[in-house]
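Hi, here's the filled form for the chain we discussed.

Project: internal
Contact: R.S.
Residues: 238
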Amino acid sequence: MATPKYKRILLKLSGEALMGDDAYGINRQTISGIVAEIKKVADLGVQMGVVIGGGNIFRGVAASASGMDRAQADYMGMLATVMNSLALQDAMRIAGLPVRVQSALDIQQVVEPYVRGKAIRYLEQGRIVIFAAGTGNPFFTTDTAAALRGAEIGAEIVLKATKVDGIYTADPKKDPSATKYETISFDEVIQKDLKVMDATAFALCRDQKLPINVFSIFEPGALERVVRGATEGTLVYC
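And the returned structure, exactly as it came back:
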């Protein structure tokens, strides 16, 4: 059996990924399927941090566009990520995975606060660490939180799990002739104006020389194949 290419990773999950075919909320069968994919990687001994969005419960930008104060909306979005993190933690525990949740917002009655040194110790002990509440600041997305936490914990790569199996020349749903990139550089992504992450998150990964792999979390075995170094999705390299 091949040795994993990466020893420590940061997995970014979208909140929408938890909905399954539902209109909103958390689909229990879907979250169990995602955890099964995560367990395959954890069983390889790979250290894993996880950042999850809150779009399935509340999307701050959309609410702001409807007239709500942006900062207020973003704090509500952060709380949505805490709810998702607790659901993911519960599903992981049922699957027998050791897991901790750390929050960038201080809500110690629910989850422990984010402390970088403690998070790294948890990883070294074989625990999965879920980073909740984004960066703890409004105006920053969970993509930025993923890039920031990935850099802080010394992750070797950020794995962005989406519903799409990589980065395309155009939206494959709108353009049937769109082709997928197997690899692409940070500079090429900027030149071609491809939407991989928000600008702040992307710039942080580029500056920290932290590669990004975009893949579909719903493709069975895809996460494990990425960690083993196989060609899967699209790799954005430095």
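Let me know if anything looks off before we file it.
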